[in-house]
Amino acid sequence: MSRIWRRPGWNMLLPPAVKCKSRISVLASEQKNHGGDGMKRMFCLVAVAAVVSLLGLACPPIDAQEKAITLNLSNFFPPENRISVAMDQWCKEVEKRTNGRLKVTQFPGGTLTPPAQTYVGVVKGVADLGLSFFSYTMGRFPLTEVLDLPLGYKSGYVGAKLANEYYKKFRPKELDEVRVLFLTTSPPHMLFAKRPVKNLEDLKGLKIRSTGTSAKVVQALGGAPVAMPMSEAYDALSKGVVQGIIGPYEPMKGFKLAEVVSDSTEYGTAYVNANYIIMNKDKWNGLPADIQKIIEKINEEWIEKMGKLWDELDKEGKEVFLQKGGKVVVLSKEENARWAERLRPIMDDYVKDMKSKGLPGDETLKFCMDYLKSHQK
After folding, report:
1. Could you report the per-residue pLDDT of 42-91, keeping only the tens digit for each?
2. What is the DSSP string of 307-329?
3. Are 54 and 281 spatial neighbours (Cβ–Cβ below 8 Å)?
């Protein structure tokens, strides 16, 4: 036996587990054959135990040989935008906490899927994960449109917290095709234009870039909504295709819109745009249970991070807007009341539309309004 053990390369063809067992068996066999007094036997047993311990370290566990799972994430924000940077950090955190077992690569700038096709792209597996706004596909998520109504939001942080509480409570079937990781919202949307807008009369007939709920808001206030992605807004404003845009301050810096608008109007019944971070359902179900739990924990943290980040970006955007010479109009109490009166039918129409579809629109609207009332000062 000892000859076979010393023969060069005899065990090279054996798998690691067999090699370990073979070496231990040989050592044990030699110890038995040599015999001797109790002291010698004890010495041999100690030696064997030491060798077994060392071989245990040398024989890699099966988990260490597990092949890493690789996924991609589609995001329409530019690579340098801090939303993209934050999602890069999310990807790195997933890889770190799973010890490299799951690696997610982000594709920003809409290179994997356009923003309006991100949801379908994730459902069909074109992208494994995706980030986009619900408002880019109006009608596809009817119940969830409640989050975008002009409810008087004051921050993106409160919007993000509300959005996730809404999802936990109502679990809308319209999102059953995917695994929802978490939701966030933009900061409150204000009106920006190439001239001052101090009242409804100034807004009448003004061409405003708007999509989804913002189009309804613009129309209700007497403006002329023009649909287009945010990525096209700069050129449209600079060329005069539109005279204004409704949105948060964030794109004043993030999309450099402070260069092409000069005035903003802040009003009290502001809305936000809710956005989703979703995952292909089959890809999610294929992940080990422990990795799923790790991702869920990270998502809870990122709801907080992203909510606060949106507000930081909004503050930075406003600073850039003012540095570029932008002027801010804050509506008077009386004018705010006029705007609120014009926007109220949007909520009424939502409830009626949901009722016709057999959906609890009255419940979701009440839930959101009550949440904001108790969580905003």
Report:
1. 444 444 444 444 444 444 443 445 699 999 999 999 899 899 999 999 99
2. HHHHHHHHHHHHHHHHHTT-EEE
3. no
Phi and psi angles of residue 137, each rounded to the nearest 5 degrees, phi first:
-135, 65
Q: How far apart, in whole angstroms, are the C-alpha atoms of residue 27 and residue 171?
A: 62
In our burial notation (b when 16+ CB lie closer than 10 A, e otherwise), range 187-211 reads bbbbbbbbeebebeebbeebbbbbb
Q: Tell me if 339 sits within 8 A of 269, measured CB to CB.
A: yes
- Residue 226: in which H helix or E strand, if any? strand 224-226
Closest CA to 246 of 283, 197, 292, 280: 197
Q: How far apart are CA 278 and CA 118, in angstroms?
A: 9
Is residue 80 within 8 A of residue 37, CB to CB? The reply is no
**Confidence band for 231, pLDDT divided at 50, 70 and 90:** confident
1-5, 31-35, 58-62, 220-224: which is most confident: 220-224
Domains of the chain: 2-63 (no CATH), 133-281+299-377 (3.40.190.170)
Q: How many C-beta atoms surround the C-beta of residue 306 within 10 A?
A: 25
CA distance 369 to 348: 13
- Give the tens place of pLDDT for each residue, 316-372: 999 999 999 999 999 999 999 999 999 999 999 999 999 999 999 999 999 999 999
Residue carrying structure tokens 């907080």: 304
CB contact set of 4 (below 8 Å; sequence gap of 6+): 10
